């Protein structure tokens, strides 16, 4: 009826577009409403009048509108909502969206406005692009205002970017996006042997800012890498993403590339150019910046000059990524300045000038590197540094479930991992998590023979590859060392040559001096490099740089050709190339790479250190008592014994060098050791050897009261090694591990050395109540343990029961600091139960929690008669005057209290008056801090004059 009436009014213009035979009436009704709305206000009025005339008298109430609906201001306000905009601008939005539906869906998915099911429903193959766009708009409207706003901002950002591009550059942009999408859609790290879709396998790692940022607490997201968050140098353009080998740096960049290619992220950058420093190493000729840009990324089909001019004119719209700065042959240097983009220079000079901004200032650069290769010279050219710290516990769970399509298998793998915390700790490194997922049948359920070290894991994956290559030939763990010894040695020789000369990509000609055969290549350890931009013959690389280090270590252990000084120089990390030049195999390697002998001495730089250290670590593990029998069939026992003694001597000598560097303490202070570069590496080497005698010998010479390992990339793996070595200390030590990634698994790995710790500092380590429960259960049994600091973790009220038990049990416990966690009044009440009984605590820090007045009152009740507490911090806890009045009783009656911190609370004059009155009865209290409370300036000045111990 309505349709007939309206159609008569509009002279049948739309009747046949809406009244489709066979279509449900409710679909026709929706289509009618959409058409009417799009025709404007007058049509809507006509439609409502039509409704009034055709509907029965008993129904109009359901369609009535309040009087204020026709108020112009109300109508304007309603029409300005984002969902309304999607309706009013629908034709133009459909026209825009039909060209970028995939990008919009990816952006909505990433921002959590859409689910995967939403995206799949819109991407149905039977729909045309315009139909997908319309369906997308309908879904967004159904999601509400937030989703509508996000989509409109996404479209606006894309239109603003597109308006700057000319047609030629737009064509190049499409080609660049297409190229990057093709290169990034499958996982390229770990050799990409499984051909896994990046969408299916990608798992977020833990990203944190290297420098403390007041506006950021905890992890950051992918979008924050290039954003303004955490900027420390506004003049610089380079972001550094640093992380250990296998932490997922390359995969992270690959994910960013794919998101940009799909227009799902980094929309502020119109062009993105990815570079691999590993591949830049193979570029021997001098290039101009323009040649570097197009030859190593994406070559424009035409109009190179115009596109290059656009890049120079709009540098702030361009993004470069450089993967693996630590793999360049040269260390970062700012000695050679270059500002002309057409002047030719060695590739590393171009790269360094891009990073420091001399060349093409304003282009944003994202560079990845291992921390040990980051020099002070490089750091001063960074706008910020982001730390990639591998997988969190939930990340491990996510990766394993993605890796195994069978949920039953994934659940079994995860169950086995959680019963083997040492192996679980190793899985915090993504590359090791991948290995464990690939080799779960060999690695899990081994009982006492389960892997304990990184060397164990890599021996297992090598066995796994050989088993899959020829399952009938190899049935035992020892047999592959005999059957495949020759190919292992050939691969090891190539790997070692590459590590020494900073070479990670090998040509066909490079394989000849090591006699690498097609059969060797078929084993799968050495794969064809996916270098799509260099026009040359096939190139090869190891599955992962850690795999190259492993094979290099096998060569060091087994080869009879190496100089006797190789192992000492490997552990000293210097002059190794000089040693190599005296051997026939090395001279061949260095000649085919056309490396100048004179430059070798000059370029023995820090960039080589990470892979040399890793090779030395594997060599330590391979020469351990548990693995040395593997090599006796191919290497005389005397030679193995000699190499083992060399490694042991190197480790002992290295530790002594560190201990001798410890300065004498200032008079009145205790002796502390700050970890020097390489200390944690030596600890890990000792652990890989699994020799208690070496650990005992090393620790017998360490005499310090505090061992400081802050900002040292200490994760669960390092915690396992530390506990293995530190448990042999002669005297108790304070262990400071602030600002690392210890986590709950790392805490559990530290338990074996808790008996030798008198204090433990674990600020900012992503620790939860679960880790604390295990830590306290162990600490109660340790006579030496007296102090703990756990600022900036993820603790809640659940952990306070454990701390209450600690306070009740250990009557010699001195310091408990739990600042900036998630403890509420209930947690404070639990702590109060322990404080009532404890007769030793001197320092209690609860700043930055949420205990409120109720929590303050509970603590005050427990501490009123206390005779030991010296310092109490309740800063930023939402405490008002009621809590302050309760604490005034502590101030009045506690004879030991010297400092009370109540800054950044909600205390009013009434609460301060109570504190002033209490201070008159206790001369021992030195200060009460009250800055940033609910006091006006006049009140502050008056009360400060009345009581000098109040600090505002």
From TrEMBL:
Q: Which UniProt keywords apply?
A: ATP-binding, Cell membrane, Cytoplasm, Immunity, Innate immunity, Leucine-rich repeat, Lipoprotein, Membrane, Nucleotide-binding, Palmitate, Repeat, Ubl conjugation
A GO term, aspect molecular function = ATP binding
Ranges for the NACHT domain? 237-373
Q: Which family does it belong to?
A: Belongs to the NOD1-NOD2 family.
Q: What is this protein called?
A: Nucleotide-binding oligomerization domain containing 2
**Primary location group:** membrane
Q: SMART domains recorded for this chain? A: LRR_RI
Domain (CARD): residue spans on this chain: 84-157
Spans through the membrane = none
This chain's source organism reads Takifugu rubripes (Japanese pufferfish)
| One GO biological process term | regulation of apoptotic process
The subcellular localization recorded is: Basolateral cell membrane; Cell membrane; Cytoplasm
Q: Say which domain of life the source belongs to.
A: Eukaryota
InterPro entries attached to this UniProt entry: CARD (IPR001315), DEATH-like_dom_sf (IPR011029), Leu-rich_rpt (IPR001611), LRR_dom_sf (IPR032675), NACHT_NTPase (IPR007111), NLR (IPR051261), NLRP_HD2 (IPR041267), NOD1/2_WH (IPR041075)
Pfam families named in the record: CARD (PF00619), LRR_6 (PF13516), NACHT (PF05729), NLRC4_HD2 (PF17776), WHD_NOD2 (PF17779)
Among PANTHER family, the record links this protein to: NACHT, LRR AND CARD DOMAINS-CONTAINING
**Per the record's keyword annotation, is Ribosomal protein included, yes or no?**
no
How is this protein annotated for GO cellular component? basolateral plasma membrane; cytoplasm
**PROSITE patterns, per the entry:** CARD, NACHT
Membrane topology reported for the UniProt record: Lipid-anchor
């Amino acid at each position: 009826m309505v349709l007939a009436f309206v159609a008569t009014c509009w002279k049948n213009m739309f009747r046949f577009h809406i009244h489709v035979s066979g279509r449900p009436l409710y679909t026709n009704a929706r289509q009618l409403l959409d058409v009417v709305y799009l025709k404007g206000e007058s049509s809507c009025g006509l439609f409502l009048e039509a409704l009034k005339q055709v509907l029965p008298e008993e129904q109009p109430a359901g369609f009535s509108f309040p009087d204020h609906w026709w108020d112009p201001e109300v109508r304007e306000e309603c029409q300005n909502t984002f969902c309304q905009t999607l309706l009013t601008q629908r034709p133009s939005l459909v026209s825009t969206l039909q060209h970028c539906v995939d990008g919009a869906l990816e952006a909505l998915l990433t921002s959590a406005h859409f689910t995967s099911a939403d995206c799949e429903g819109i991407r149905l193959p039977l729909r045309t692009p315009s139909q997908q766009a319309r369906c997308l708009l309908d879904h967004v409207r159904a999601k509400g205002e937030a989703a509508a706003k996000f989509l409109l901002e996404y479209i606006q950002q894309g239109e603003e970017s597109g308006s700057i591009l000319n047609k030629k550059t737009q064509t190049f942009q499409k080609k660049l996006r297409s190229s990057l999408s093709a290169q990034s859609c499958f996982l390229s790290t770990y050799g990409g042997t499984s051909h896994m879709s990046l969408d299916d396998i990608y798992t977020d790692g833990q990203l944190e800012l290297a420098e403390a940022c007041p506006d950021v607490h905890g992890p950051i997201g992918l979008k924050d890498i290039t954003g303004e968050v955490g900027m420390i140098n506004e003049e610089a353009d380079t972001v550094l993403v640093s992380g250990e080998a296998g932490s997922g740096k390359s995969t992270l960049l690959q994910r960013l590339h794919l998101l940009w290619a799909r227009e799902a992220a980094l929309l502020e950058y119109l062009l993105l150019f990815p570079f691999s420093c590993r591949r830049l190493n193979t570029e021997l000729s001098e290039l101009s910046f323009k040649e570097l840009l197009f030859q190593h990324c994406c070559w424009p089909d035409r109009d190179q000059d115009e596109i290059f001019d656009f890049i120079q004119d709009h540098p702030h719209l361009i993004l470069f990524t450089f993967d693996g700065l630590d793999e360049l042959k040269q260390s970062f240097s700012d000695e050679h300045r270059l500002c002309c983009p057409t002047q030719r220079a060695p590739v590393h000079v171009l790269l360094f000038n891009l990073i420091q901004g001399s060349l093409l200032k304003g282009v944003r650069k994202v560079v990845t590197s291992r921390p040990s290769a980051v020099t002070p010279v490089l750091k001063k050219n960074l706008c910020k540094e982001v730390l990639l710290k591998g997988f969190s516990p939930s990340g491990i769970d996510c990766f394993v479930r993605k890796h195994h399509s069978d949920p039953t298998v994934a659940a079994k793998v995860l169950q086995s991992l959680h019963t083997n915390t040492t192996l679980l700790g190793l899985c915090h490194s993504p590359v090791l998590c991948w290995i464990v997922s690939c080799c779960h049948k060999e690695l899990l359920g081994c009982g006492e023979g389960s892997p304990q070290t990184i060397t164990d894991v890599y021996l297992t994956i090598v066995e796994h590859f050989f088993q899959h290559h020829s399952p009938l030939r190899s049935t035992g763990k020892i047999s592959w060392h005999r059957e495949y010894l020759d190919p292992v040695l050939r691969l090891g020789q190539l790997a070692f040559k590459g590590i020494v000369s900073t070479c990670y990509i090998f040509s066909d000609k490079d394989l000849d001096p090591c006699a690498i055969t097609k059969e060797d290549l078929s084993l799968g350890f050495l794969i064809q490099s996916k270098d799509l931009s260099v026009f040359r013959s096939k190139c090869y690389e190891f599955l992962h740089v850690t795999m190259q280090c492993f094979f290099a270590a096998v060569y060091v252990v087994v080869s009879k050709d190496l100089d006797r000084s190789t192992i000492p120089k490997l552990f000293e990390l210097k002059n190794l190339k000089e040693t190599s030049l005296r051997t026939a195999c090395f001279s061949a390697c260095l000649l085919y790479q056309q490396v100048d002998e004179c430059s070798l001495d000059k370029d023995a730089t820090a960039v080589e250190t990470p892979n040399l250290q890793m090779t030395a670590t594997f060599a330590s593990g391979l020469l351990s008592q548990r693995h040395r029998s593997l090599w006796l069939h191919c290497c005389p026992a005397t030679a193995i014994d000699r190499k083992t003694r060399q490694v042991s001597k190197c480790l002992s000598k290295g530790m002594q060098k560190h201990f001798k560097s410890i300065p004498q303490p200032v008079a009145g202070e205790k002796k502390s050791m700050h970890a020097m570069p390489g200390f944690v590496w030596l600890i890990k080497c000792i652990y890989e050897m699994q020799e208690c005698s070496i650990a005992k010998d090393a620790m017998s010479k360490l005499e310090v009261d505090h061992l400081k390992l802050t900002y040292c990339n200490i994760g669960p793996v390092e915690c396992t090694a530390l506990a293995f070595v530190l448990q042999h200390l002669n005297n108790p030590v304070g262990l400071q591990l602030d600002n690392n990634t210890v986590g709950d698994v790392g805490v559990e790995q530290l338990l074996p050395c808790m008996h030798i710790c008198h204090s433990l500092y674990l600020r900012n380590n992503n620790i939860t109540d679960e880790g604390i429960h295990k830590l306290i259960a162990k600490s109660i049994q340790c006579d030496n343990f007296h102090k703990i600091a756990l600022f900036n973790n993820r603790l809640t009220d659940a952990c306070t029961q454990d701390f209450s038990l600690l306070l009740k049990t250990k009557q010699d416990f001195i310091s408990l600091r739990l600042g900036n966690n998630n403890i509420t009044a209930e947690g404070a009440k639990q702590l109060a139960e322990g404080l009532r009984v404890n007769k030793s605590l001197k320092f209690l820090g609860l700043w930055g929690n949420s205990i409120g007045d109720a929590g303050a009152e509970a603590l005050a009740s427990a501490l009123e008669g206390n005779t030991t507490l010296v310092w109490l911090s309740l800063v930023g806890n939402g405490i008002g005057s009621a809590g302050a009045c309760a604490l005034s009783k502590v101030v009045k009656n506690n004879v030991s209290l010297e400092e009370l911190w109540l800054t950044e609370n909600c205390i009013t004059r009434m609460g301060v008056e109570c504190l002033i009155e209490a201070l008159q009865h206790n001369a021992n209290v030195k200060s009460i801090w009250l800055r940033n409370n609910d006091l006006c300036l006049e009140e502050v000045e008056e009360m400060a004059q009345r009581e000098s111990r109040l600090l505002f």
